[in-house]
Each structure stands twice: as C-alpha cells, then as structure tokens.
Design goal:
The structure holds three protein chains of three kinds.
Chain A (H helix, E strand, L loop, with lengths): L10 H7 L2 H24 L10 H25 L8 H20 L11 H5 L15 H25 L4 H20 L11 E2 L3 E2 L2 E2 L3 H27 L1 H18 L4 H27 L1 E2 L6 H14 L4 H21 L4 H15 L3 H15 L7 H9 L1
Antiparallel strand pairs in A: 1-4, 2-3
Helix pairs in contact in A: 1-8, 2-8, 3-8, 3-10, 3-11, 3-12, 4-6, 4-10, 6-10, 8-10, 11-12, 11-14, 12-14
Chain B lengths: L3 H15 L9 E7 L7 H20 L7 E7 L5 H14 L4 E4 L3 H14 L3 E3 L12 E3 L8 H9 L8 E7 L2 H16 L7 E6 L7 H11 L4 E6 L5 H10 L9 E3 L4 H4 L11 E4 L8 H16 L12 H20 L4 H8 L3 E3 L5 E4 L6 E2 L3 E5 L5 E6 L23
Parallel strand pairs in B: 1-2, 1-3, 3-4, 4-5, 6-7, 6-8, 8-9, 9-10
Antiparallel strand pairs in B: 10-14, 11-12, 12-13, 14-15
Chain C lengths: L1 H15 L9 H5 L6 H14 L2 H11 L3 E4 L2 E5 L4 E3 L14 E2 L4 H15 L5 H11 L8 H10 L3 H15 L5 H11 L5 H11 L7 H51 L6 H22 L7 H23 L8 H23 L15 E5 L2 E4 H23 L1 H11 L1 H6 L4 H26 L6 H16 L4 H22 L1 H18 L15
Antiparallel strand pairs in C: 1-2, 1-4, 2-3, 5-6
Helix pairs in contact in C: 3-5, 4-5, 5-6, 6-8, 7-8, 8-9, 9-11, 10-11, 11-15, 11-18, 11-19, 11-20, 12-13, 12-14, 12-18, 12-19, 13-18, 15-16, 15-18, 16-18, 19-20, 20-21
The chains are: A mainly alpha, B alpha/beta, C mainly alpha.
C-alpha cells in the first residue's frame, strides 16, 4: 500500500494561524460594508438619525483605500524590513491610470464640449498622446492600473535590490523617486493635467459618479479590496514565504550565506505591495473626485509610514487600524482646531517612535500577554499563532 | 486575532460621525469659510479668512441678515485639493451652511465644483483667475482676464507703459498661467505681434532659482523693447524679483507686470530694487477715497484685536476687497429674496450693486455671475505700496469666455 | 557814500557765485507737474539742458517720488520739511493742498537718464563712473551737446571709453554715413546685449543702406559676440558655483550628523529655517534699536543663527534622537515629526506669510567682471561665506580634540567608546555643530530667497542628494557632490529647462547610488552590516 504524503493544503496554514475571532471580525466588517451601510445610505431617508450621509460614505471609502495602502506598506516594512518612503507614487500611478479612463468617460460633457479633456484643450493639443490610447476601455485602464505601477516597481526594485541598496539609503532614494515623479507630473506638457490633474468626473462604467448607489458601491469595493488584501497578506506571511521574509528583515546577509536568493523574494513582495497600492489608488480617485501630483509628494508617503507605525508594524490589521485612526484624527482636527493639527501629527510621529514602537496593536498584544502570563496554564491564542508562524 | 474587533469598532465610530449634528438654531445663519490655513497657500489665504470673519462681525454688529446673526464655520483644507472637496461637502451637508466663501487656486475651485453642483450649494470665489468657466452655483468676485491681463498688456504697449514690442510670458506651470498666456498670445497676434517676439516659459511651483531665466530675459530683451508678463504664483515671486535686482534689470529697461503680486506678497520682499515694476488689479490699498480709508482702518483694527502677527503693518489687497464685496452682496441678495435658499439667492444676486473700497460702484452682472470691475495699473513703490499710473474710467464688464479662444463665441452668457 | 565802497564787495560776491547757482526757472519746473507724460518729459529735457546741481536735486527728487506740487509751486519733500524747488528755500509751514507728483516708468527712465548725464560733471570719480554706466542708450540727439561737453572734460580713461560707446549709440541714428561709420567702429568695443542688437541692426541690409557701414558693423558684431560668449560662460559657471555653495551650506551639517550618528535628520530643513528667522529677528532688532547700523545686522546675526540652531539641535538630539540612534528608520520618522512641529511653531509665531529680509547695502548690486557678466554681491558673499564655514569646519574636525573624537566615533563607535571617548557627549556636540552649520546656511539663504515657515522643505531633498552622493561622513565628498550637482544643474538648465534638469539630477543620483551605494568617497575598511 502506498503511503502518500498528505496533500499540502494552501488554506490550512492561514486557517490554522488565524483564530476564530479574526474570521468573525472579517465577516462582521464585510456585513457592515456590504449590507448595513448601503441600507442606511440608500433606504433610510436623510432626515432619520440613522441615515449615513454621502459625506460619511465618501470619507469612509477614502479611509478604506488608505488602510489598504497601509497594509501594503506593512507587508514590506513590518515583514521584510524594507521601508519605502515613496509608496504614494504607486498609489498615485494607480489613481492616474484609472483616472485616464474616467476622463475619457466624461465624453463631450466637459467645459469645452470636446473629445479631449479640458486641460488638453487649453494646451492646444489636437489629439490624445500615444500613452492615452485604449484608455476608453475600462478593461485596458484596469490593466494599466496593475501593469504600470507594477512595472515601475519591478524595474526600480530590480536595480535597487540588485545593488544591495538597503536601509536608510533605500528610503531616501524612494523619496527621490516619488519627488522626481511629482515634478514630472506637475508639468502640463507631460499630458496628465499638470497641477490641476484629473477632475470633474461624470461617469464610471456607465453609472453617474455622484449617484448614491455608485458611491456606496465604490465604498463597498474599497472595503472588499481591504479585506482581500488583509487575507492575501496574512496568507503570505504565515506561509514559508513569510518566514523567509522575516529572515530577510532580521539578517539578510546570513540568509544569503545560507543560499537563498533574496533578490526574488524582495522583488516579489515589493511589486505585490506596489500593485495593492495602485488598486487602492484606482478606487480612491472616483470617490474623492480628483487626482493630482501632490498625491506623489514626499510628505504624503511619509505619512503612510506613520499610519503603519501608529497602528502596529508587523501586524497587518494594525496598519489598517493606524490608517483609520490617524485619518479620523486629521478630519476632526482640521475642522475643530486647524492650527493644532500639525502639532498633533508631529508629536504623534515622535511619541509613537519613541514610546510605542510596536504601535497600538503591539501594545495591546503586550498587555494581553502580560496579563495571561499571570495566570499559569491559560491558553494563549497569540502564542499559538506565533508558534505556527515562527 | 481579536483585534479584528477593533477594526469593527473603528468602522462603528465612523458611522457615528455620520449622525447629523443636532438641531440648527433658528436665529442664526451658518456661513462656511473654505480657505487653506496651512500648507503652501496659507500665506495668501489666511488673510482672506480674516477678512471674511471681519466682514461677518461687521454685519452682525449692524443687526445681522434678516435679523439673524451670521455664524462663521471655518475649516482648513490645508492646501490639499482632495481635502477641499471633502471639506466643501462637509460644510454643505454636515454643517448645513447657507453659503461658502472660499478657494484661491484654480485647482481648489475645480475640485469643489462637482460638490457644489451636486449639492446645489453656493460659492463666492474672490480671486482673479483664467476664466473659461461659468457655473450656476458660483459667483466670481475676482477679475476675469479681460479685467486684468488684457488692459495690462495694452498699457505695456502704450508709450507710457514703455512701448513694448517683445513679450516674455513667464508663469508657474498650471492652468491659470497656461490659459492666461493662451489668451494673451491670441490678443498679441490680433495687435500684430508675431510669435518670434513672444517667449513662453513655465517653472514649477516653489521654483527658487531664477538665474538662468533672468539671463534668458536679458538675452530676449536685446532684440527689442521687452516687457515681462509674469503669472508666477505665490512665493516664487520673491526669488524672481531678487534675481532681477541682482542682474540689474530695472523696471525702466524691462518692466515686469505681475498678476499674482499684491501688497501681501510684497510684504516679504525688499522692494527697493523693484521700484517701477507693475501689477494690475481691480483694487489697490493706496487708493485714496473714503470707502477705502474706512476699509483699511477697519481691517487694521481687526488685525490688532485678533493679535495677528505683524498687525500694525497689516495690508489689504484685491482678493480681500473682493471677499468683502462678495459677502455684502450676498447679504443684500438674501435680504432681497427673504431667504437663504440657494436658487432664490442666485436669482436675487443679479444686478446687485455695492460701493466698493476701490472707489467705484461694482455691479453683479445679471447674466454672467461676474462683477463689473474697474482696472488699475500700479507701479511698485519703495514702501511696498503701489502708485496708480493708469485706470479705467468706469467698471468693465467681465468676459469669462475669452473671445480670443476659438469656440467661445457662443458661450458668452449663463 | 557807502555804496561805492560796497560795490567791489558786491562784485566779488557776485563773481564768487558759481555758474548756474541762479535759481531755477519756475516755468521750466511747472512742466513737471503736467498730466501728460510727454509734457513731463519735455520739461525734464529742458531742465537737463539748463544744467546745474539744483536741476540734479530736482530730478533726483522726481525719480524718488519726493516731488510735490501746491498751486503750481513745485516742492521737494525732504522728510521733515518741504523745500521750494525753484528757489531752494525751505518752507516754514506745509501748505494745505499739497499733491504728490507721480511718474511712470517712461518718465522715470528719462529722469534717471538725465540725472546720470548731469552727474557726469560731478567732482567725485565714482559718481561719474556710475553715471556713465547708467546712461545706457538714454541720450537723445538733443542732449548730445551735453554729452560731448562731458567727454571733453573727462580725464579718466575708463569713463571716457564708456562715454564713447554711449555717444556711438546715439550717433548710430544719425543721417550722415560718416558719423554712422565712426559709431559702428566705436561700438566694436562694447560688450553688452544692447550694443549687440544695435550692431545686428546696422549689419542688416534692411536697416542700413550704406555698404561700408554694414561691413564695419559685421566686424564689430563678431568682436562683441566673442565677448558675450565669454561672459555667458562666466555667468553660467558662477551660477553653478553659487548654487553649489548654497547646497554645500545646506548639506554640510547633514553630512556631519549622518556621518557620526547614521541619523538622517528630516528636520534639517527646519534648522535652516531657524537660522533664517534668526537673521530676520536680528534685522528687526537693528531696525528698532540701531537704525544706523542696519547694514551690519548680518554680521551680528551670524552667531545668533548658529546659536539658535545649535540649541534646537542639541535639544532635538537629547530629547529624541539619542534614543533612536540604533534605529535609523525610526529616527527618520521621528525627525520628520519634529520638522512638522517646528514648521507649525514658526507659522504660529511669525505668521504664515513670508517675512522681509533685506540685503544690507554692501551686499546689493554686483561686481562687473565683463560688461555682460555682473556677479551679484550677495551671491559672491555667500560663496565666500560657505568657503569660510567649510574651512572652519575642516579646522575643527582635524585640529581640535572634539574634531578628533567626532572622527573617531564616526569610524568606529564601539572602539572609540572603549578607549574612553565620551561618545554620548560627542554625539550631542556633533549634532549641535551640524545644526549650527545649518543655521548659518539658513542665514545665507535668507539673503537670496524667501523666508517663510516652509522654506526648509525646498532644500531637504537636495541636501539628502548631496549627502547620499558624497558618501558617509566625508567632507570632501560633500563638497564635491554639492559643487558638482550645482554646476551640473545650471548647465543642464540652460539646455533643458529647470524641471527636466531637476528630474535628470534626481534620476542621476538614484542610478549612481545603485552603482556605488556608499557614495563618491566610500569609507575604507571592512564595514560590518549593522
């Protein structure tokens, strides 16, 4: 009788490593996003206190996109030790790629009632440049959303990782990259709307952009992308691949000595992270209604890092939480005490890096572990996770 | 992973924010102020916020609008264009303001337009701009190109302005300079100036090193009497003027007329080397008339009361005057319509007049949502104020759709 | 009986009065208050031909916006009192209906030109030289006799040469070909763009009917073009040096702190800003307390800028950075947070608007190397200043104990600690030093560009590029990188424009770092990965 080794299930590691509470959280988040919020926005009349306003839906959708970006950054920073301070570039590139389709979808309804977008009219251009070709098809635009940032990330990563550029140097050159791209896109001659960027969208996939149904659908899609990102990243980090990533983070030279070709691991996770950002960017643009080169500013990219740091580096959900918390704080501060917002943000950076380096989630875990250690023999779900994973 | 629940909690908190703010007080009217108080545009826009607050206080002191007090709701979109749209939406749908006074850059205005038309809000935009726009929900109290740029170029071509034959169009790379220069080029063609006598150069935002460009201007000027038409935005004006001073290019040789330089921008510059360079506006602080004297004095008192930095040297400028005029006209329209409902106010705005600090009576055109404004050309003085060297006899009607751009012939009115 | 005795005295008195001391004709002056610019210009010309120091005084007042009119009487505003322009007598009381006479550029140009012409007769040589330079092409044919008289009386050769070119410019418009020929030959000695364009017009058949004149013009044009090319090269190189010196000042402090602590300080730009605001504060102090000494506020500001930035740097290091020195990525984020706090603090204290920092008078204007190559004094002073700072830093690092400790800690922190170097104190002092240098850089920057809360942000990326390119903790590398980037940017800018040049430079640095990750001057020896 043959003894066949048990088939390695793809799902088993992630199912085993994630306690039931996690799946309940996932399910409830999905339920809220796909059922509760749409119902409260579309079905409940505006006068009722339960009504979810379009403002709230737009803000929530935007924050969900930001959370996805934070998770993507956590994947490479928390698990592979690569701090990119230029991730805003991929976010913006995805936004621009999808924005091209949205600009096409305006059709003749623009200010000048011409085939070309308004900014091309006032630049006196007569036809679309070659890189705009095909963007009237949503399929091609979506392909561009994935391909362009992916290829840019791949090429940049290839050269950077091959030369073993690491640590702070790497962060600085990602800053230089996004700064250079921002300068490039600010030029009107580059053909992406210059400082005005893309705005004044009318339609998406045939539906009006401002309709409540579209807005809720975009919000739900953003949350869906966030949840899928969380699951995919979780799957990645609990697998053997994730173990190698953590080894890269902790001691790359040793790993190389052991015979691993770290270049491909880093490149893969870097490109994946860039593509996730790009998808988030593509969903962000129709919800916010504008994409412009200041999304590529170095300051924006640094802010992404602080979301991850606040929420908890190396814990995917923490990054999402950090993004939510910091952006809620921003919305509140810029309304209630605008002069104090930058003080708050600055001190947050300092406090988090000095006192709470593991972020909110890390803190929670530490507290829970300490409390559990006082009760001998108690089961520790966190430890269980780490045993499977480590 | 119990902390999934924290994500849940966060989302729940988010929903809680959506609950509309409790009862609106019956005897107040909320007014939104949408100006950047931080970021690159804070330099220009903070003064507009203060002017708006001062005007609102003045109106309240005189009894308010229809007997109700105005309550300003100030938000800070932080020079971040997507945040402008979000804050505009918040002001209209959360705070339920009756009107919004705000925006400066064209990007910020364009990013909030969809919000205003979707929610049928009302925006008063006080800054000179490139035109090529006419929205039902917006009233433009700043200058259109034919109320600023074109008269300035005509002056430069006149003997008094130096009789310029060649023109160097220098601007920051965004829609306002691009569109203005397109209009100006067509205008210059119509006056017989050829393309070889027109140079068009753009620099990025925040560009600081103008050595090469000033050298190019010198070279260009060698080919004939040249004037520089500067649509450089904001802070970049300072290094440009400093470099002009360094290179010894005086206003008597190569005059520079700037459209984005006013008293506020000159506060941060040593104006001695700039004497004689020009600006074109619909208002200057140095105008001598009773309304302006009162306006300047009111603003200085306000600045002192609010402990603004450098309050004793506070200056007033064109966008501030436009803000002041806009708020008063809105008040008049509301009182005429007996309501703050957007559509009624829009209808009542047609034909409104006001004795502006510029010394002229400004009228809101009944068909195109723009003001009839006078034009002043001023030369910079050593003390940072402007000498008015030319002015129109009467206010000019705005042409938001420039006749110099093909395709605009059919679009002249709302 | 008395009169015959007094007559000789009177005659003596009358003879002693210098020519032209007779009071100015009020009819001439009246034209200055005319509405029409053309009338004003005619009055100015007439006044110039009348000549004399009083005429110069009136014209100067006109150009300075100090001329006023009251019921057809022209008055000069001297600040504390009014003086009658025609008689020169001060007025006891200011009349009630005084109105300022405003002029526009066209009138100012004529006034300044006439003023320069009158100043050609001044006793002081430097005044005459300056006036000759300022004349340019403003001498119209009717003023030519005055210019000829000045030429005849002028003894200094350099001024004569300048005046001859001015005369040639005027003569070029003459109807006699012989005069034009002489003019064209004389213009061959010129070296400005204005002269070039005149010669180009004279060499063109459309503008000049006489063939001999055209030929001579072509020869002169070639000579002027050669001179202009040289001037262009000089200008471009100087711009590059100037930009490089600024980059050096901005990046030097960062190079030191990065070298010794491996900390990339994102708040470095704000240290620049602190130095600039320190300069502004000292200027305000001088304006309030010592108005006469305004020109020297820059010198007084140097220790203030250094000190303020030093204090802030030390505070930053003690409070935040020392806890993060083994964690460079976190220190990057923490210092970014500090930069946000500093920017907002500046905004709240000084206002969001830019503040005015004026060049002292000895830094205004420029030195004229060639007629077309004027090197501005403020940039020259900054180049000199950065060299001085560089020299001082080098001396500090190589000749003092502290410098030795800094170098030791940079090379091998652990061993330095083992042999007794107080590493943490050295860290603090080195960081403070780097911050102080940044403060000095900010002071220099305040002289040529904006001073506002966000000014540091513009220089942060450039500073990083210099540090990353130059290599860890290497002064020589930082110098070379700064100068190289500056010169390369400027030359590239002439070809491609500012934005593309900046992008190209950034792209170059990104690629270079990948080829040579340790920078231009890599530290020698085994480097163990931290």
């Amino acid at each position: 009788m043959e003894v066949r080794p048990p088939r390695r299930s793809l799902l088993r590691p992630v199912l085993a490593a994630t306690p039931r509470a996690g799946w309940w959280g996932l399910a409830s988040a999905a339920a809220i996003a796909f059922l509760v919020v749409p119902a409260l926005h579309l079905l409940v009349p505006p006068s009722s206190p339960l009504h979810v306003s379009d403002y709230a839906v737009a803000v929530a959708g935007k924050i969900a996109c930001y959370a996805t970006v934070a998770v993507a950054l956590d994947l490479i920073w928390g698990y592979a030790g690569i701090l990119s301070l230029g991730h805003g570039l991929f976010f913006a590139l995805g936004g621009y790629a999808f924005g091209m389709y949205l600009m096409r979808a305006i059709g003749h309804d623009g200010v000048y009632q011409s085939d070309l977008p308004d900014f091309m009219v006032f630049l006196d251009w007569k036809a679309y440049p070659w890189y705009w070709r095909g963007t009237e098809h949503p399929g091609w635009a979506l392909a561009l959303v994935v391909l362009v940032p992916g290829i840019v990330a791949f090429v940049f990563g290839w050269f950077a990782f091959r030369s073993r550029v690491r640590g702070v140097y790497f962060s600085i050159i990602t800053q230089a990259l996004t700064y250079a791209a921002m300068l490039l896109f600010f030029r009107n001659d580059t053909g992406f709307g210059g400082n005005n960027g893309f705005t004044d969208f009318k339609r998406i996939f045939g539906f009006p952009v401002a309709a409540p149904g579209t807005r809720v659908a975009l919000f739900a899609a953003s949350v869906l992308v966030l949840l899928v990102t969380l699951v995919v990243c979780r799957w990645l980090v609990v697998s053997r691949f994730g173990r190698v990533l953590r080894a890269i983070r902790d001691g790359e030279s040793r790993l190389v000595c052991l015979g691993y070709d770290t270049l491909w691991y880093k490149l893969l996770v870097w490109t994946l992270s860039a593509v996730l950002c790009a998808i988030a960017g593509a969903l962000y643009v129709p919800q916010v209604g504008i994409i412009n080169p200041s999304e590529m500013s170095p300051a924006n990219s640094i802010e992404i890092a602080i979301w991850v740091a606040v929420g908890g580096r190396g814990t995917l959900v923490g990054a999402a939480l950090g993004a939510v918390l910091v952006n809620l704080a921003k919305s509140w501060f810029t309304q209630a005490m605008p002069e104090l917002w930058l003080f708050f943000l600055g001190f947050l950076f300092v406090a988090v890096t000095l006192f709470v380096p593991d972020g909110v989630v890390g803190l929670v875990r530490k507290v829970r572990r300490r409390r559990r250690a006082q009760v001998p023999g108690a089961a520790d779900p966190d430890r269980a996770v780490e045993e499977v994973v480590a | 992973m119990r902390f999934r629940l924290s994500t849940l909690a966060a989302l729940a908190a988010l929903l809680a924010l959506a609950l509309p703010i409790a009862a609106r007080s019956e005897d107040t009217i909320k007014v939104g102020i949408l100006h950047s108080l931080s970021g690159t545009m804070a330099i220009s826009e903070t003064a507009l916020k203060e002017t708006a607050l001062m005007t609102i206080a003045e109106i309240n002191a005189a009894g308010g609008v229809m007997g109700k007090k105005l309550v300003p709701v100030v938000v800070d979109p932080a020079s971040n264009w997507p945040l402008f749209a979000e804050k505009a939406r918040q002001l209209i749908s959360q705070d339920k303001v009756a009107v919004v006074f705000g925006c400066w850059t064209s990007v910020s205005r364009k990013s909030v337009l969809p919000v205003f038309s979707e929610l049928n809000g009302l925006l008063f935009y006080p800054v000179q701009y490139e035109g090529e726009e006419l929205e039902k929900n917006v009233f433009y109290t700043g200058a259109a190109p034919n109320q600023q740029a074109i008269p300035a170029v005509e002056y430069l071509m006149s003997p008094d302005g130096g009789g310029a034959k060649r023109f160097f169009l220098l601007g920051t790379d965004y829609v306002y300079p691009r569109t203005t220069n397109k209009i100006l080029r067509a205008f210059l063609h119509s006056k017989g100036v050829q393309d070889k006598d027109i140079a068009e150069v753009y620099t990025p935002f925040g560009h600081g090193d103008y050595q090469t460009i000033v050298a190019n201007i010198k070279q260009f000027a060698a080919g004939g009497k040249t004037a520089v038409i500067s649509t450089i935005n904001g802070d970049s004006n300072v290094p440009f003027y400093k470099e002009l001073g360094n290179a010894g290019l005086k206003a008597t040789d190569v005059p520079v007329v700037a459209f984005s330089v006013g008293e506020e921008e000159l506060r941060g510059v040593d104006t001695r080397p700039l004497v004689g360079h020009l600006a074109a506006w619909n208002y200057f602080m140095s105008l001598k008339n009773p309304e302006n004297a009162a306006f300047v004095q009111k603003y200085r008192a306000w600045a002192k009361k609010r402990n603004l930095p450098n309050a004793d040297k506070a200056v007033t400028n064109d966008p501030m005057e436009a803000t002041y005029v806009g708020i008063h006209m809105w008040k008049q329209a509301v009182e005429k319509a007996h309501s703050t409902a957007t559509d009624k106010v829009i209808a009542a705005m047609a034909g409104q007049t006001f004795n502006a600090p510029s010394g002229f009576v400004l009228t809101m055109d009944p068909t195109n949502h723009h003001l009839h404004k006078p034009v002043f050309i001023g030369e910079i003085r050593a003390d940072g104020q402007f000498n008015v060297v030319w002015k129109t006899r009467e206010p000019i009607r705005a042409q938001p759709w420039s006749p110099f751009i093909t395709g605009n012939e059919s679009k002249q009115n709302m | 009986m008395l009169l015959p005795r007094l007559l000789p005295l009177l005659a003596l008195a009358l003879a002693a009065r210098p020519a032209g001391a007779a009071s100015l004709d009020p009819a001439l002056l009246k034209g200055l208050a005319a509405e029409d610019s053309g009338d004003k210009i005619a009055a100015i010309r007439a006044l110039t031909l009348a000549g004399g120091p009083e005429a110069a005084t009136v014209l100067q007042a006109l150009a300075d916006d100090r001329l006023q009119v009251s019921r057809e009487r022209i008055l000069i505003d001297e600040g504390d009192r009014l003086r009658d322009a025609a008689t020169g007598e001060p007025l006891a009381r200011a009349p009630g209906d005084v109105e300022a006479i405003t002029i526009n550029n066209r009138v100012r140009r004529v006034a300044e030109g006439s003023l320069a012409l009158l100043r050609l007769f001044d006793a002081s040589r430097s005044v005459r030289a300056q006036a000759a330079e300022a004349l340019g092409g403003t001498v119209t044919p009717e003023l030519l006799p005055l210019l000829e008289r000045a030429l005849a009386e002028e003894k200094v050769r350099a001024i004569r040469e300048t005046l001859e070119i001015v005369r040639a410019r005027t003569q070029l418009g003459s109807s006699e070909p012989a005069l034009r020929l002489a003019a064209v030959k004389a213009l061959g000695a010129g070296g400005t763009l204005a002269v070039r364009s005149l010669l180009a017009g004279a060499a063109d058949p459309a503008g000049e009917p006489d063939a001999a004149v055209r030929k001579a013009a072509a020869a002169s044009l070639a000579a002027v073009d050669r001179r202009l090319l040289l001037a262009d090269a000089v200008n471009r190189t100087f711009s590059g040096l100037s930009l490089g010196s600024i980059l050096l000042l901005a990046a030097l402090g960062l190079a030191i702190t990065y070298g010794i602590m491996g900390v990339i300080n994102m708040a470095h730009g704000e240290l620049l800003m602190i130095g600039a605001y320190a300069g502004y504060a000292v200027q305000s102090l001088f304006r309030a307390r010592f108005p006469g000494g305004h020109d020297w506020y820059v010198v007084a500001a140097i220790p203030v800028a250094f000190g303020a930035a030093f204090v802030v740097g030390v505070a930053m290091e003690r409070a935040v950075i020392r806890h993060l020195y083994r964690r460079p990525l976190e220190s990057l984020l923490a210092t970014w947070g500090l930069s946000l706090v500093l920017i907002q603090a500046a905004r709240v204290s000084f206002g969001a608007q830019n503040v005015q920092v004026a060049n002292p008078s000895w830094m205004s204007g420029g030195v004229t190397l060639l007629p077309s190559a004027v090197l501005p004094w403020n940039r020259l002073v900054i180049v000199g200043f950065s060299l001085a700072v560089l020299a001082a830093t080098w001396l500090l690092l190589t000749r003092t104990r502290l410098g030795m400790f800094v170098r030791a800690v940079t090379q091998n922190r652990a061993m330095a600690g083992c042999v007794g170097v107080p590493t943490s104190r050295v860290d603090t002092l080195a960081f403070g030093l780097g911050a102080g240098i940044a403060g000095l850089g900010g002071l220099a920057l305040s002289q040529i560009s904006n001073v506002g809360p966000e000014m540091g942000q513009l220089y942060i990326v450039d500073s990083f590029m210099v540090v990353v390119l130059g290599g860890v903790g290497q002064l020589a590398g930082a110098v070379l990188a700064a100068l190289g980037l500056g010169v390369a940017s400027k030359f590239l800018e002439g070809v491609t424009g500012a934005v593309v040049a900046k992008i190209a430079v950034l792209a170059f640095v990104v690629v270079f770092i990948q080829r040579r990750p340790q920078g231009l001057f890599a530290p020698k020896g085994r480097a163990v990965e931290s």
